[in-house]
Design goal:
The structure is a homodimer. Chain A is of the alpha/beta class. The first copy, chain A, contains eleven helices and 14 strands.
Chain lengths: ~350, ~350
């Protein structure tokens, strides 16, 4: 290779352009979707949620509902670790030797330095890949794991993530004890964890047939409470890529689900998609809109990495296994800012990774 | 699949066991190393460093040396983004259509929510996988990218990371303005960025022949200044796995490099390895020990994700391309704590992912 010599001093700070129009108009240059020849199976799964989530519409589908948000621990952070640990251990029950049969864990979460995931993996004697794409972490982990299994590198991979209302509020907004008011377009970070065990096994009823890797999209939203509006363009970008890559339309899927856009965000996504000629009909739902009912005062619905992770690993995969749905596209969406970047005046870049579940 | 029903309330917080002996004695149960049939090539690379790093022993090997740690920006965070951006753009010069020929970027960094990587990828019209394993991020990205390329999913993948002394100190310890004293076993976070372009191309002189996925190891260190001692056991764990998986010994490699153990940490690693019967001789070096000379008052040497990323993408790969080395094992090491977890009394879990570079 010719050695690259490039002696510059200041390449300029390029990050303050508002509303990246080029990200929309020229968005689709190369394929972003990998279709698997040997689609990996979902052989185990588990969802663990908090009390509030247990009282919501999906309550009866979750495997474990906690009654204490601190789970008997001294800190909410430790309670989040417990939930993720329980989801991972519970999902691994499908394997003859439990977690000893795992070849790899792919995990991440919302806390700084993804500590919930790393502290859980400290208890496991299993290789670990830490990932981060905020609330898109579940679909990112499923996408990477599917690529690894399809290629034959491993037999069993655990994909998991978690979030906790109290830890996320403290870290991203204000500690709960401050009693800050929330605007009507806010969402509620789900106290929830989810884990899927993917396997090269060829007999389980549900497989992952394809994965779409998302690009970073920023439409200029800078309000830390308005996650749905910030993330909807990223969902649009990745969905359009999948439809074009695979030459499909929304009607070709029994169900299309997004992660945690909430009610406002999912309405924005419907509008954005219809502007592009893709009409999301009754086969489109958002996990954030499903998790709480209107009496629970959660405004636009749920958010957090655990939101879609728990809904997909309970309600959604139940429905696919039972044959109610055959072909489900899942696009979790993540907002990639930090509090520091927002304090420094930055807007919120977002991303969405997608996978398709199919009943064999 | 049989639905897992497991209704528990408190699985107990398992994270305060000190010195996980079982992690050592039973560490090696399954293969952690993937050997590639179609090893991907390193076709482009770039290193960008700060002034202090430019004055060190490797100064003449780096592609870009910045003279201003703020790079003309208002904040150190923006300067870190600039460095990473410049490394990515510079490395992509090897491709006919520059970054437009990239199929994927795999990146992460030390800042909360890996914002440096995400804000750089916002400027790119390329799918992005965010990863995190602290200072092991460079080798984690190379390992994942190699798996993806070996399987034929993509043609060109950029792997990159960065760190900055001022942003890391503010976030993990104290803002520089406080003028805090540093203990003699401290290391100095490198102001540096590195990027490698890996490709399915079969003609470039250097390939990645195998990747070893690390496990989380915690020997009970809880001093945020003593990173080398915390990380050495993780390096040992992954190195032993590679030697056993591939039936090799240290002498089978021209060079074995660790990321940023520093002088103290690399001495500990030598001791730990010799206890296990593997003697690291003159063919073992640590990038953290290389980056500064003794007159620069950096105590045990460099640390930070950018430390080994910049050294590998300049000095080390120069030497492999020139034929001085034929077969180099690279184990970057990462400490996975957050300030929050340490405030809450936790010890520091660590990880090390490894890859092997070979001259064709």
């Amino acid at each position: 290779m010719g050695k690259v010599i490039y002696k510059g001093n200041n390449c300029g700070f390029l990050c303050n352009k508002k509303i990246e129009e080029h990200q929309v108009s020229n968005f689709h240059t190369k394929k972003q979707t990998i279709v698997f020849d040997n689609p990996p199976s979902v052989i185990g799964r588990m969802s663990v949620v908090g009390a509030k989530e247990g009282q919501g519409p999906l309550g009866k589908y979750f495997h474990v509902v906690k009654t204490d948000d601190k789970n008997g621990e001294k800190t909410f952070e430790k309670a989040e670790i417990d939930m993720l640990y329980e989801a991972l251990i519970g999902a691994s029950e499908c394997l003859p030797n439990k977690t000893a049969d795992l070849d790899l864990i792919i995990a991440g979460d919302l806390l700084n330095q993804i500590t919930s995931s790393s502290y859980v993996c400290r208890e496991m004697n299993v290789p670990y890949l830490g990932i981060y794409s905020a609330c898109s972490t579940m679909s990112e982990s499923l996408a990477i794991a599917s690529c690894m299994l399809n290629a034959g590198y491993f037999n069993n991979i655990a994909c998991c993530t978690a979030s906790h209302f109290a830890t996320a509020e403290r870290q991203y907004r204000y500690p709960l004890e401050y009693g800050c008011q929330r605007p009507p377009y806010a969402q509620w970070t789900a106290t929830a964890a989810g884990c899927s065990i993917l396997s090269a096994d060829r007999t389980a009823p549900v497989v992952i047939t394809q994965a779409t890797f998302g690009k970073v999209v920023d439409f200029g939203v800078n309000d830390l409470n308005n996650m749905g509006a910030a993330m909807a363009p990223a969902a649009m970008n990745s969905m359009l890529a999948m439809f074009k890559d695979t030459n499909t339309m929304p009607k070709d899927y029994d169900l299309i689900i997004t992660g945690d856009l909430g009610k406002l965000g999912s309405d924005i996504l419907r509008d954005l998609m219809s502007e592009k000629g893709y009409f999301l009909g009754r086969n489109y739902i958002d996990c954030g809109s499903l998790l709480y009912d209107v009496t629970q005062n959660c405004y636009q619905g749920a958010s957090g990495a655990g939101c879609s992770a728990s809904a997909v690993n309970s309600y959604i995969l139940d429905k696919i296994e039972s044959g109610e749905y055959q072909n489900v596209a899942y696009f979790a969406t993540g907002a990639l800012m930090s509090t520091q970047s927002c304090y420094q005046g930055e807007t919120i870049p977002c991303i969405s990774h997608g996978v398709v579940f199919r009943r064999r």
